[in-house]
Amino acid sequence: MRNNRQERVLADTAPRGGSGAGIRRLKHWMAALLAVILLLVALLGVLVWQALRPQTGKNSASAVSDVSTVLQQEDVLPVPDDSWALTVVSPDKKISSSFTAQLTTYENVQVDKRILPALKKMLADAKAAGYTLQVTGGYVDADAQEKLYQQKIQELMQNKGKTRAVAESDAAAVVPPGGCSENQTGMAVTFPSDSAFLSSDGYHWLLNHCVEYGFVRRYTDDKEGRTGLQDDPSHFRYVGTNNAQTMRKMGLCLEEYVTYKGNQTVSN
């Protein structure tokens, strides 16, 4: 009887192997479940990343494209119609009665509105480079131009003792009569003519870069025989960027360039 009681006591105090095994199995299942959850989360993250990546790239490309377009719009100047941009007006060639300047006012000077984008950009770029360029003259109507011409004739007669016939000829080479000055086109602008400006770095910047904006120095000593006007370092004329760059490259004044263009058209 005592032995049976001892056996039951030993049985009650012995480790319960079945219960320990169940706990271990539960831990294994939980570990496996956790691994599956982590795997699913990682997979979901990959799927989300792949789904968002193309859209982000597309938006970035679109943004870059938009910025590029804006910059191009700001940098690219309009291409003018040669039928007006290459208009020649000189003492030997009066302005056509059908020509009409499309005037606007910029910094108290009247110019043809079609040259304004190029003029404003040239002045802005000069300022960014450290030079302030001041436009002192632009459009002059026929009556005002004729008055300047007559004043120049009187000046030459009174101060130089020239006859009227000689004074008229000499005056026309400096201040053309009304109807014979390209100032009536609104495409010509003048800058200060004093020696301080003409010897400044700002003026040299203007000379070097003007063709990039469609402007050329219109009257030079070596072309006086073609233009009919004396050298005027302060006078610049708009002809369009492509034309201006070609004129500089070929060493042509406007009269020569128009003839060249005409010959090219005929030969083609």
From TrEMBL:
Q: Which Pfam families match?
A: VanY
- Example of a GO biological process term: proteolysis
Matches recorded under SUPFAM superfamilies? Hedgehog/DD-peptidase
- Domain of life according to the entry: Bacteria
TM spans (from-to) = 29-52
Residue ranges constituting the D-alanyl-D-alanine carboxypeptidase-like core domain according to the UniProt record: 110-240
**CDD domains of this UniProt entry?**
LD-carboxypeptidase
InterPro entries registered for this protein in UniProt: DD-CPase-like, VanY-like_core_dom, VanY/YodJ_core_dom, Zn_M74/Hedgehog-like
Q: What name does this protein carry?
A: M15 family metallopeptidase
Natural source organism: Caproicibacterium amylolyticum
